[in-house]
Amino acid sequence: MSTSGISSVLTNINNAFSGKTSGIDVAATVSALMELQRAPEAQMQSQQAAVTTRISILGALAGELSQLQSAANALKDSFGALSQKTVTSSNPSIVTATAQYSAPSGTHTILVTQLATVSSSYSDPIADASILAGTSFQIAYGDPNNPTKIDNITLPDTIKTLQDAADAINHAAENTGVSASVIKDANGERLALVSNASGKDGNLTVTSAAPFHQGVEGKNANLTIDGVPVESASNTVSEALPGVTLQLANADSNTKVQIGIAPDTTEAAKAINDFITAYNNAVKDINAQFSADSSGNAGPLAGDASLRTLQSQLLDIAGYAPGGDGPYVNLQSLGIEMQNDGTLQMNSTVLEDVLTNHYTDFQNFFQSASPDAYGQTIGKMLQQITDPVQGTVASDISGQKAEGANLTLQINDFEDHMAAVEQQLTAEYSRLNVLLQQYPMQIQQINSQLSALNPNNKG
To answer: Whole-model pTM?
Structure first.
């Protein structure tokens, strides 16, 4: 409560005693006195606000550490960014390819002499489709003389149009591999059948009441890979080379295509950049807590011991050097250099040389099976740091929340106490107000009595 507030209360009481006012404003008086009583609560509320601020900062830092952990996991993941492959083709109009992480790096020579085809068959124009009602279709797949399977489909007696026939074939339970449709041209309507499978095993031979002609013969793709003949029922060849899928687009028996498989250095560089960015974000936010602003004030967590511990843990991650005889012993040897403020900066020239000329050693640095490999070790370190219960930040947040909860209890108890104090003050000043309101009348009565005793007294 301010000095002016106390003075105002005293003035109001004095005015009531002197008869200038009739009593006092009890509510205003008690409110002014309660302001003084509540001074400790304001301090607790300020402390509580500071706790909330610290928890918010720690929560943001926890999110950044989670991103750092994800970036670190991407570097150690043997199926992740460092294991991705890129594929080039000297003639994409003939063949392209994709490669999985397991595909060995190298170059392969592809010669495509024949593409796989999808077999089709069609009828003569049929003017009256009702002739097909109740008739049977025999559809043989593969070699006409030695089919791999045969579908025997009987059309219902309700057939009136070719579309009815096509629908009946498509929905027949006996249909295991063909799609029917209606083709219309200047000569009329024809029923067309297309095999659902490419290659020679999908080749169609159709026997029915209406004559059918072969549109396209089902053939396998023929190609050579590094001189080795390969036959495929599909133009997507996925089993010839380990981890590699070839997509045949055209056949040209005079053009050999070079397919190159190599590590995807672009993805690897991005993974390194993601790690550096995530690391720097965390370090910069920690540094900001220890840096004084223009007024000389440090951040809300400047005195937090856990933050110093975290800062030290991050420096350990950046400086960790795994054992072994490889050419790369730490991040700096890969071109990832530490700055004076603890952040990391990539020397793109060094890293480009590493990725281009020493990729296997680069990958082994992060993904070696050795228990003390960089990726394995920092993965464990970050797992401990980001543990949702015992991690550095999580423990700190728990402590801050406990402090906040304790302050809440103190404030609640204080509020209960203030309610009792306010009730007591209201009762006391209400009684005082009654006395002050009666005081002028009592003075008047006394003056009247004194005047009666001494008639010569004029005052």
So the answer is: 0.72
